Amino acid sequence: MRRPASLAAAAAALFSSSCGYMGPVLPPSLHIPAAIKDLEAQEVGAKIDYHFTLPHETTDRVIIRKFESIDLRIGPDVKPFDLNTWVAGAAQQPIVPPEPRKKQTDDSEDPAQQIASSLPVSHYVGTHVVIAVRTAIRGERFSQWSNIVRLKVVEPLLPPTVEAGSDPRGVKLTWAPQRSGLKYRVLRQGPKDARAVEVATVDKPEFIDAGAAYSTEYRYTVIALETDDGANAQSVPSEAKPITPEDHFPPSVPSGVAALATPNSIELSWSRSPEPDTRGYVIYRSVDGGPFQRVAGLAALPTYSDKDVQQGKKYRYEVSAIDELNNESSRSATVEVTF
User: What pTM was estimated for this model as a whole?
Assistant: First the structure.
């Protein structure tokens, strides 16, 4: 009699243990995807570009492997806004669901599934629209609508035609304006940049890049922007404009030149040229109405002491500035003194 009792006890223990690991019976999934939360849309050229991430799970936390349909719609932004009214008047944009997600062989997460596409703006120019999206994995069991994106659709912006030239401050870019109220994003790619990076956003059709170095090759791209009154529009990027700026610009003309006769010399002084690459100053002298001739060597400081002078003679002086590349400025106003 002991052996059957032992078998019965073992069976009971096994059944009890198994039930403990199985836990309560879960109800079947409703198979309704979670709502999309990151829908974004922007007018780019003659299209509205949009993108979003498909949900990873259903509302009851079941992993989604395959989507049956993706329902993205665009329609008038009715006032006051009512979701059902908007749905009835919105146009459906066809989106082909992606391939089913593959099960991972390890414990890693399934990669997020991104959807990115576009639709033409031609039917919506001059109107305010609403865009939203939902998904389904079985029949008509759709998720809730995503976050709503509102756009004012404007006349498509054209890519600017950029001109570039060397400037005393770096590189000067210009392009033709399209209409009032636009801004422009300026991007620059230097020799060490893997891609173009934004250097400025301006509200005029010109830009001076003071951060550019001479004798260095750059490529500039400009994008037109319109963001007023609910618009979120931009042009496609302009063609990249290459330029290697060269410094052929002299320093500023010295100003405030003054001459003072002392018992043994004529002392000159002037205001320093502000350019950081100013190397020095050249002094020109005329004696008793004769031609101007360069005197002495290059003056590093904005002063000069002329000791080669004679009593009773009239001296006139002009000063220019010169930079590291020997670009010489025009001469200053003439000063005159009798020794």
Answer: 0.78
Half-sphere exposure of 169 (CA within 13 A, CB side): 6
Q: Can you give the residue range of the structural domain that contains 181? A: 163-243
Residue 97 to residue 319: CA distance in whole angstroms = 76
3-state secondary structure of 84: helix
135 in the same domain as 49? yes
Q: Where are the alpha helices (DSSP H) in 273-339?
A: none
The total of structural domains in the chain comes to 3
Instruction: Please say which residue of 243, 275, 302 terminates a domain.
Output: 243
The answer to whether the beta carbons of residues 235 and 224 sit under 8 Å apart is yes
Per-residue pLDDT reduced to its tens digit, 296-324: 899 999 999 999 999 999 999 999 999 99
| The dihedral sign for the CA sequence 290, 295, 299, 305 | negative
Residue 287 domain-assigned (yes or no): yes
Is 20 strand, coil or helix? Answer: helix
Residues ≥6 apart with Cβ < 8 Å to 225 = 157, 182, 183, 184, 185, 201, 233, 234, 235
Strand pairing partners for 188?
197, 220
Sequence-distant (6+) residues with CB within 8 A of 101 are 63, 64, 65, 66, 110, 113
Rounded Cα gap, residues 68 and 98, in angstroms: 9
